[in-house]
Amino acid sequence: MNENAGTFDPLDRRLMLATQAGLPLVPRPYDELAKTLGIDADEVIARLQAMLDTGRIRRIGAVPNHYAIGYKANGMSVWDVADESVDAFGERIGALEFVTHCYRRPRKLPEWPYNLFAMVHAPTREEAREKVEIIAALLGDACRARDILFSTAILKKTGLRISG
After folding, report:
1. What phi and psi, each to the nearest 5 degrees, are found at residue 104?
2. Is the pLDDT at 138 greater than 70, yes or no?
3. How far are the Cα atoms of 1, 23, 65 from residue 62, in angstroms, in the given order?
4. Residue pLDDT, tens place only, 58-104
5. Smallest Cα–Cα separation from 100: which of 81, 115, 122, 85?
6. By the 8 A CB rule, do 162 and 5 touch?
7. Which residues contact 19 (CB under 8 A, 6 or more apart)?
8. What is the edge-to-edge ordering of all strands in the sheet holding 99-104?
9. Is the pLDDT higher at 1 or at 22?
10. Spatial separation of the C-alpha atoms in residues 94 and 35, rounded to whole Å
11. CA pair distance 81, 94, nearest whole angstrom
């Protein structure tokens, strides 16, 4: 976020509050938001675009429930690669179609040597492991250690929420 949320004008703040749980599930969601906010749909779109342009919001898009569509094996693969190459590998791994999140994180030595994290989703754990093997092949000898941590329960599944 490039700007402090406190600098939003009141209408932008109301728009953020109206959309933070998702767009209305109607054929014309921007028109519905416009009615709720007392403005026209073009202004809704322009304000959302301005928030995208300034980095106050990152994206507008559908977020499928991967459990509901059959992806029940969710594994965070963790990798130990040289710090000087982690960014380059992260770019390549993050571009894989089956990787939904890819992060560089600090090591916590000696217990936790991993500095590159990549989340994969698959219908089964075996299929998730197959995807992790694709990452391993991409890393080759640069990978010094690895593991995969499978989710066992969803504790929270929302983005950042601002209070009204």
Report:
1. -100, 130
2. yes
3. 20, 9, 10
4. 888 777 777 778 888 999 999 999 999 999 999 999 999 999 899 99
5. 122
6. yes
7. 33, 48
8. 99-104, 116-122, 73-80, 145-150
9. 22
10. 39
11. 15
Phi then psi for 155, rounded to 5 degrees? -95, -35
User: What residue has token string 């894989």?
Assistant: 96
Between the alpha carbon of residue 102 and those of residues 1, 4, 15, 18, 90, the distances in Å are 19, 26, 29, 29, 7
Let me know if 16 is exposed, middle or buried by CB neighbors in 10 A (0-12, 13-18, 19+).
Answer: buried
Q: Which two tokens stand for residue 28?
A: 């014309």
Q: Is 127 helix (H, G, I), strand (E, B) or coil?
A: helix
Tokens of 137: 């092949």
d(CA 20, CA 38): 18
Token look-up 């300034």 returns 54
Note the pLDDT tens digit of each residue in 9-44. Answer: 999 999 999 998 888 989 999 999 999 999 999 999
